[in-house]
Amino acid sequence: MQIRQPVPEDHQRIVKVVKEWWGGRDLSSGVLKIFFYHFRETCFIAEDNGKLAGFLLGFLSQTYSDEGYIQLAGVHPEFREIGVGRSLYAEFFDVCRANSRSIVRSCTSPVNTLSIAFHASMGFSIEDGDDIVAEIPVTHNYLSEGQPKVLFMRKL
Ligand SMILES: CC(C)(COP(=O)(O)OP(=O)(O)OC[C@H]1O[C@@H](n2cnc3c(N)ncnc32)[C@H](O)[C@@H]1OP(=O)(O)O)[C@@H](O)C(=O)NCCC(=O)NCCS
Q1: Where in the chain does DSSP place strands (E)?
Q2: What tens digit of pLDDT does each residue of 38-69 get?
Q3: The last residue of a domain, from among 101, 119, 136
Q4: Which of 35, 44, 80, 105 to mutate to test the pocket of ligand 1 (most atoms within 8 A of CB)?
């Protein structure tokens, strides 16, 4: 397994797999091509002999100088539970530390129990939020109206 930073040509490769990797939920609108031009240092692609095995899109917050944010991360179903997601997050944590970022944030939908379990294993806590859905604290209207999100935070 190799992990590298992406180039613009990788954008469509990722857009094409998101719906399948997310079990039919089409989150590909979150795969903005601008990441592949201007945020390459905080984005990572995992490949197995050239086959796309995983990706992480993140950035260093412009507003909060001690924070990094993970926009989207996914692993090919055939390569799950062998540490690819952990390795991608580790790369992002390293670049955060190198840039004096001591807090990493991310979020997910309350329906994504897999993501909630993964982030718990990765040492994230869940922010208190303003409501509880399925026994999980959520925050309403965080990224879009009417869509509660589970907000994750991890200190490095
Ligand atoms: C969530 C996801 C990225 C995890 O990737 P992965 O490569 O399978 O994860 P890893 O093998 O690195 O596992 C890291 C930790 O998460 C835990 N984990 C992974 N899959 C899990 C599952 N299905 N249930 C419970 N825990 C799980 C592992 O136990 C591991 O913890 P450990 O090292 O303490 O044992 C992957 O399942 C995925 O792409 N899911 C669909 C997209 C998605 O929901 N992304 C969420 C981030 S936006």
Answers
A1: 2-4, 43-48, 51-60, 67-75, 103-108, 125-126, 131-133, 136-138, 150-155
A2: 999 999 999 999 999 999 999 999 999 999 99
A3: 101
A4: 80
CATH code for position 88: 3.40.630.30
Q: Cα separation of 1 and 134, whole Å?
A: 36
The pLDDT value recorded for residue 63 is: 98
Total domains present in the chain: 2
Same domain, yes or no, for 135 and 62? no
> What is the CA(76)–ligand 1 centre distance, in A?
11
Query: pLDDT by residue (tens digit) across 9-40?
Result: 999 999 999 999 999 999 999 999 999 999 99
Residue 84 Cα to ligand 1 midpoint, Å, equals 8
